[in-house]
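Entry 14: structure prediction run for RNA polymerase-binding transcription factor DksA. Input pasted below.
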Amino acid sequence: MDEHKQSRMLRAQLRELYEDSIDAVKFGLPTDEIHAQIDLLTAELSELEEFKNEEYEGLEAPKESGYKISGKGIGCCDHCGKEIFEGQKHPIPNEEGLFCNYYCRKLYRKRKDREAQTNNRATNTII
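Run finished. Output tokens:
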């Protein structure tokens, strides 16, 4: 049996044992044997995972995305209301306002254009 199938099988057995342990606690039964089996399977699984991870040593981790939330809050998006942070990539706030991403800014612009079309009834022209 290959390592992937074996680790999946061990994980399934661990899940069943954890459920059995929860049921045993509910009904007031002893859980010593179950915890001993859990410890044994956990050790076996960690040994297997350690062996599997050796082939990935030396690989580079992917670059961090600029959309991760970090830093101090600088305001809220004018369209959806989400909080925007310093470390987050966002459209540069010019006359329009502050937006969490380009999609929100685009939707906000479309809404403003629609409002301008409906509010310009005095001249009966659509801009």
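Notes: The beta strands are 73-76, 83-85. Will compare against the previous run tomorrow.
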